[in-house]
Design goal:
Blueprint lengths: L2 E3 H6 L4 H17 L12 E3 H8 L11
Antiparallel strand pairs: 1-2
Helix pairs in contact: 2-3
Protein name: DUF3173 domain-containing protein
Organism: Oceanobacillus indicireducens
InterPro entries: DUF3173
């Protein structure tokens, strides 16, 4: 599974607070899908697919940072 962090989103050009909001919404999305693992406050990585679903875009493999 490819994951995304707030730092990754900032590197893609999103603002700091918007990036944090995206991660928060992605965690909420994963929780509603039954993945209680994302309830952790310290967790700062979410699946790329969740971020893509929230933003309505698809990241190319060139944009990811592993």
């Amino acid at each position: 599974m490819i994951t995304v962090t707030k730092k990754d989103l900032i590197e893609l050009g999103y603002g700091t607070s918007f990036s944090a909001d995206i991660i928060k919404k992605a965690k909420e999305l994963m929780i509603t899908k039954g993945h209680s693992y994302y309830e952790s406050r310290k967790l700062d990585r979410v699946p790329r697919e969740a971020v893509e679903e929230i933003l309505g875009i698809n990241f190319s493999d060139d944009n990811r940072s592993d």
